[in-house]
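Input record, target 12 of the design panel.
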C-alpha cells in the first residue's frame, strides 16, 4: 500500500456542498479568481481559518481532513505562510484534477463552526 500524507482544508458551505456532490472524493475546480488550491498541513491552522474567516464570510466554517498519495504530493513544496505551524501547499488550479486523482479514501469533515455557536467570533488574530 502506498504511503499517504494527511492534509487539511478549511472550507465554507458552498465548497463543502460540491465536495459532498463528488461523493467526498474530490475538490471542485477553482474559480477564475482562485488560481491556487491551498490545502494545509495541520488541523490547528485549518481550524483558525474555518472559525475566523469562513464563519464571518458565510455563516459556517468546516475543517476537512483527507489523505493524498505521499509520492505525488511531494512535488508541491511546503510553503510557510506565517508562523512555523502555518504550513500549506500551493497546487495550481490546472493540476487539481491530477491532485484529486491521488486522494486516497474520502474527504471527511472533522470540525465545524457556525455563527452564533460561541466559536464563530474571533477577532482575526
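The sequence produced for target 12 reads:
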Amino acid at each position: 500500500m502506498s504511503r499517504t500524507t494527511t492534509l487539511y482544508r478549511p472550507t465554507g458551505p458552498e465548497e463543502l456542498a460540491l465536495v459532498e456532490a463528488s461523493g467526498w472524493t474530490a475538490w471542485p475546480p477553482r474559480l477564475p479568481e482562485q488560481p491556487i488550491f491551498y490545502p494545509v498541513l495541520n488541523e490547528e491552522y485549518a481550524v483558525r481559518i474555518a472559525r475566523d474567516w469562513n464563519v464571518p464570510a458565510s455563516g459556517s466554517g468546516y475543517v476537512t481532513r483527507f489523505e493524498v498519495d505521499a509520492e505525488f504530493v511531494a512535488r508541491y513544496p511546503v510553503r510557510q505562510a506565517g508562523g512555523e505551524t502555518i504550513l500549506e501547499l500551493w497546487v495550481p488550479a490546472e493540476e487539481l484534477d491530477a491532485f484529486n486523482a491521488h486522494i486516497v479514501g474520502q474527504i471527511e469533515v472533522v470540525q465545524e463552526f457556525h455563527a452564533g455557536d460561541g466559536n464563530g467570533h474571533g477577532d482575526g488574530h
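The beta strands are 4-11, 36-37, 60-69, 78-80, 87-89, 91-92, 103-114.
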